[in-house]
Amino acid sequence: MDAASNKKYVRWEWRTIICLMIGYALFYFVRKNLSMAIPAMEAELGLSKVQLGIFMTINGVIYGASRFVNGYLVDRFSRRKIMSLGLLLSCIVNFVIAFSPKMNGLMHLLDAEGKATIGLVYLIGSLWLLNGYLQGMGVPPCVSLLSHWIRPKELPTKQSIWNTSHSIGAGLVVLLCGFLLKTFGYSAWNLCFIVPASIALLGVPIIFFGIKDDPTEVGLPPVEKMDGEASSDAPEKRISDALQHKIMVNMVFKNPIIWVLAIANFCMNVIRGTILDWGGTFLIQDKGMDISLAGSVVGGCELVGGILGMIVAGWATDRFFGHRAHRTCLVCMIMTTICFFCFWKSTATVSIIIFLMLSAFFIYGPQALYGTCASMQCTKYAAGTGNGVIGILGYLSTFVSGIWFGAIAGSELGWNRVYVLTVAFCVLGSLVIALIWRIPATGNEKVEKIIAENS
Fold first, then answer.
1. CB neighbours of 31 closer than 8 A, spacing ≥ 6?
2. What mean pLDDT is predicted for residues 410-423?
3. Could you state, in order of their start, the residue ranges of all structural domains in the chain?
4. pTM for the complete prediction?
5. When comparing pLDDT for 109 and 100, which is higher?
6. CB within 8 Å of 127: residues ≥ 6 apart
7. Do 377 and 442 touch, CB atoms closer than 8 A?
8. How many Cβ atoms are within 10 Å of 65's Cβ, its own excluded?
């Protein structure tokens, strides 16, 4: 490729990365806003923690299913159109949630005291379920677009840059909602849906007009042809459908390492969900913080803990653990256990903030690396299926962190029992991932043996 084409490619590559970072960060504006609206919705609408926990659980499960469905669709239709449509519709759903009590004249949604009836509970719950599906239209287009625009040998590094958009979006929306509730009070809970959705709408044209589905749309060759090594390797890597199926079965479904990773990922997501989904609530109700400070702390967990945690964990894997990401995950899980226990026992505001943010810092290492572990163990031939398996268990964790923990927090047992169980899942997650400490960094040797035996 000549110098002019290379310059054009680099410009479009970074344009795509930046647009996807902005776009996906804004998906979080209409996804993680509920976690900060929970205390206000409890107070103003009389919704219970169990009901709110159900909302989060339904959202998580439907989100997981949606990622599988849309992963199939993005390979057949326009990725930028699917992503921009998902963000647009998610914004609309958030607006409807915000104004749902105003529909009381059409449906019996509020009682005489202005509290939510079961009708409003079902309405908001159904809307949040729909939002879960629409949110699943975000990640698959991003992953596919990145693979179409980034040279294979540069994909891990540049995709990790995009991955920080998760924490940026979640952190900013928590800070925004905390500010809104502090300024206007709990009665303005609907602003936690209206304002983030209004901002997120700006991402729709950025995605739709700022991105192209493939380099060929702007007169550039496919990305594989920009990488001599990748293009030269391509012909000899082709395998039959039957062999592909055999590899998938053996490297994923019959591979005990993947199931260990799946269980460890489940435990990790319970902890992460507890901190991020309930953090604002237990900091206010149990630790005595005001809404603005609680929002700042949870936002800091995402922006500081999340971004730094992912970057440091990736660096440590290559620097100290010989590319064995599962070893980094074990160290991070042990440190999360210690830090969250210290948070639980802390009474001083400063130590509460420090230990909760450290818990987030360490839990984001496994959050970023479990998918890498699965890809490396399944190899490129079955990486998608392997990530799908560990992802499904990760989404099912919302039954624990959402419904179960919500029920416990709303009972006589209270937040103290939630802390006990969170520490227990920290310990369990550490013990599970420790089972594979000695395995090699990748499953390449195993998959090569399968290919050789069936050639």
1. 59, 90, 131, 135, 170
2. 90
3. 1-227, 239-455
4. 0.70
5. 100
6. 93, 96, 97, 100
7. yes
8. 14
* Mean pLDDT for the stretch of residues 265-291: 89
Q: How far apart are CA 243 and CA 245, in angstroms?
A: 5
Hey, what are 368's tokens?
């970023």
- Which of 328, 334, 281, 276 lies closest to 303 in space, CA to CA? 276
238 pLDDT more than 70: no
* Residue 110: φ, ψ to 5°: -125, 145
193 and 38 Cβ atoms separated by less than 8 Å: no
Name which CATH class applies to 1-227. mainly alpha
Residue indicated by tokens 């993947």: 258
The length of the chain in residues reads 455
- In this structure, CATH architecture of domain 239-455: Up-down Bundle (1.20)
Q: Give alpha helix (H) positions in 201-346.
A: 203-210, 228-233, 241-248, 256-285, 291-300, 307-320, 325-345
Question: Is the separation of the CB atoms in 20 and 162 below 8 Å?
Answer: yes
The average pLDDT across 414-425 equals: 94
Vertex 398: Cα angle to 255 and 25 (nearest 5): 95
> Over the stretch 151-169, which tens digit does the pLDDT of each residue have?
755 655 676 777 788 778 8
Q: How far is CA 6 from the centre of its chain?
A: 33
Residue 296: pLDDT band with limits 50, 70, 90:
confident
* Amino acid identity, position 408: I
Task: Give the residue-averaged pLDDT of 347-374.
Answer: 88
